[in-house]
Amino acid sequence: MGLESYLANITLGDLWALQLIQGVVMIMALGLIHGHQR
Asked: What are the alphabetically sorted keywords of the record (predicted)?
């Protein structure tokens, strides 16, 4: 029981981290694109 909840927490944490990293990468990419356009 404890192991399952432990794995579930890791999975949710990884998904949240992946979404956060994806958002940061997209923002950085948009910033670079706008910077090159100027």
From this structure: Membrane, Transmembrane, Transmembrane helix
